[in-house]
Write a structure and sequence with these properties.
Layout lengths: L1 H11 L22 E7 L4 H14 L3 E6 L3 H9 L5 E4 L5 H11 L3 E16 L7 E2 L1 H8 L9 H6 L11 E5 L4 H13 L18 E3 L1 H10 L4 E6 L7 E2 L1 E4 L2 E3 L3 H9 L2 E2 L10 E2 L12 E9 L1 E2 L2 H15 L1 H11 L6 H11 L3 E2 L2
Parallel strand pairs: 1-2, 1-3, 5-10, 6-7, 6-8, 15-16
Antiparallel strand pairs: 3-14, 4-8, 4-9, 4-14, 10-11, 12-13
Helix pairs in contact: 1-2, 2-11, 3-4, 10-12
Length: 356
């Protein structure tokens, strides 16, 4: 229900935007555009999306942007089926969905990273305010193989910390989720001996408690004691956030550490010229936080309606602009895109136009 409330709030924003400049700047300059576009997708982006839409509204009054945080899987489905003009997703398009998107868009699909954030391993455990967990320990907990908080594996990760014998209740997403795909990708890379499943947007095993959406996971973890889950760090609230133990380092889920792993990753080949999809390096050394998501905005290069094309172009330019990235960082704690990456993304956004 919380996610529905946010969607309604976003839908009520009236987002105006000016024509973007060649540097991919914001919507504060130019004559402005008018029209309505709708998007759907990742609930992890919802705090940032509210900030982006609010920034649009503050700058101009000519356009309306709606966004429904139904989850990454739902957003991708609505986009490839033509139900929305853009989608937010914590995982890039692949295989059949990529082909469907190309068909819907008349050939060229745009995928740009717009939101870089740590996925926090959130927990609620009375009397424990700081927690360190190695990748294999996290995998064992979510597989249901580590069942109490004083398990020897957790004790070994937290020398000197008094841990209770409280039962562990792991909570995972019940819906298809890019956050789930990013977590399972981390586990498969960093703890392959324990987590033997491949990365998947659908939770792959029958263990733990299921909850709908980011807000559902946060609510379920908050409702108990001894609970643990995963969610975009911006949504963690007062819950504990575990440090991930990598070698002799305990790395906190900060925006700076998330951005570091992003810089060490490579673009996916074969996605198309307009795609900036990345294969994330979950084992990067040097203080990078490995449980990180790169969330994308997906759009068409060509739209049948000129007003839609103009608003999509202007909105995407605002989102990736320094102003838009700063607004997201303040609202959601995300890591701003680098100037180098912005300079590569902007020419792709500028290609958005109307066509047959």
């Amino acid at each position: 229900m919380a996610a529905v409330g946010v969607a309604t709030t976003c839908a009520l924003f009236v987002a105006g935007c000016g024509a973007a400049n060649e540097g991919g700047g914001g919507a504060t300059e130019g004559e402005g555009v008018s029209g309505t576009i709708s998007g759907a997708g990742a609930s992890s982006q919802q705090a940032a999306m509210q900030a982006w839409i609010a920034g649009f509204v503050d700058a101009n009054q000519g356009a309306t942007v709606n966004y429904d945080p139904v989850g990454s899987g739902g957003g991708r489905t609505q986009f490839v089926e033509g139900g929305v003009q853009f989608a937010g997703s914590d995982a890039f398009l692949e295989d059949e969905q990529l082909e469907q998107a190309r068909e819907r868009c008349g050939g060229s699909v745009i995928e740009i990273p717009n939101y870089v954030s740590p996925i926090a391993i959130v927990y609620k455990l009375d009397g424990v305010s700081e927690l360190n967990l190695a990748p294999a320990t996290i995998a064992g907990i979510f597989r249901g193989e580590i069942t109490t908080w004083n398990d020897p594996a957790i004790v070994a990760d937290n020398p000197g910390t008094e841990l209770p014998d409280t039962a562990i209740t792991p909570v995972h997403r019940s819906d298809e989720s890019g956050t789930t795909e990013n977590l399972t990708d981390f586990l498969s890379q960093a703890a392959p001996d324990v987590w033997t499943d491949e990365a998947d947007g659908n939770w792959p095993i029958q263990a733990g408690e299921a909850a709908q959406g980011t807000s559902g996971v946060i609510g379920a973890v908050n409702a108990g004691n001894g609970t643990i889950g995963y969610a975009d760090a911006s949504q963690a609230g007062d819950l504990g956030q575990a440090n991930v133990k990598l070698g002799d380092q305990n790395v906190a889920p900060t925006a700076e550490a998330a951005a570091q792993i992003f810089e060490e990753s490579q673009r996916v080949e074969g996605q198309g010229e307009g795609s900036f999809a990345y294969e994330l390096n979950r084992t990067a050394a040097g203080g990078a936080y490995p449980v990180v998501l790169v969330s994308y905005l997906m759009a068409c290069e060509t739209y049948p309606d000129q007003a839609q094309a103009d608003v999509v172009k202007a909105f995407l330019n605002y989102v990736v602009s320094p102003e838009g990235q700063a607004a997201a960082a303040e609202a959601a704690g995300s890591a701003p895109l680098s100037d180098t990456l912005r300079s590569e993304i902007t020419p792709v956004i500028e290609r958005i136009s109307a066509g047959a």
